[in-house]
Amino acid sequence: MWAKLMTVKNGYVAKVWKDLFDAEGVALRLVPPLTGSHSLTEPRDIWVPDSKTHVAVEIMRKV
Q: Mind listing the pLDDT tens digit for each residue in 15-28?
């Protein structure tokens, strides 16, 4: 299962968070995805696995 972590204002910000979480080894899912017919100016929801929610929150706290 996945848990919604946060909503960011656009795809550019979502990409920065994705790169940070990838570097820390935390998988995430962006909804809507960065690829496809969606504009990069649309808001994105960031979802993480339930088992990694506490890790993601800790990473956000340190930033």
A: 999 999 999 999 99
